[in-house]
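Suppose a colleague, Dr. K., hands you the sequence of a protein chain of 281 amino acids and asks what its three-dimensional shape might be. Before reaching for any lab equipment, you can write down a predicted structure in token form. Begin with the sequence itself:
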Amino acid sequence: MGISGNGAWLVLLIGLALSSFIVGSYAGNFYQDFDLTWGGNRPKIFKGGQLLSLSLDKVSGSGFQSKKEYLFGRIDMQLKLVAGNSAGTVTAYYLSSQGPTHDEIDFEFLGNVSGDPYVLHTNVFTQGKGNREQQFYLWFDPSKNFHTYSIIWKPQHIIFLVDNTPIRVFKNAESLGVPFPKNQPMRIYSSLWNADDWATRGGLVKTDWSKAPFTAYYRNFNVIDAKSSKSFSDSLASWQTNALDAPGRRRLRWVQKYFMIYNYCSDFKRFPQGFPAECRN
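The predicted structure, expressed as tokens, is then:
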């Protein structure tokens, strides 16, 4: 994960730092927008609906979901992840429809031992089929401060962003016979749960329950809903909502060059007969 010394990445880092301030100017209300769905008293809403927390202990994790369903739009949420030794824990933040042929767009944050980086796991399910994983390290400690994690979902593509920086683009490849999530509305979900059978180094590092409860925090939820926003395509800079422009493509290449640690589209052992069709898109 080394970074070259030519200075170009420093310019990008400065831009990334500035972009995190641009995104943080709104505030949703968790009382109005979400239901606490499981975990007993472990999920909590504070500060008049401006802050939400999920907790995990040895008995149970916790979760919440949006009251509304969405079909296309932009979803923003700021998260501060479990601090310290978070090995074995998973904080999942995703969009999903229901049923065996569900669609899903995933951020999953895989915890690690103190001092080691989180792994950001992304996936896209269409018609109940996933197996489209890309994984990244982040260029900051996601447990020290809030950072913005966004999904832009349009008929043409899905863009994953971190602090307004694109890290992944999943394009509509229906012309190649690949299903694309475009017909099923999805709710927003998040959960904090124990997955020490696989989450950290393939399950080799187990959850240290002496550190429990583990807690993640959420704030500044915002949605630009394509159904209710006539100005969806014009309301943000073009690279945020439409195809990436040149600066957006440069940021995407920077993240994928220096911080991507797994890409299913380059896993020869997994696909010895050839990569999935969307990998050629």
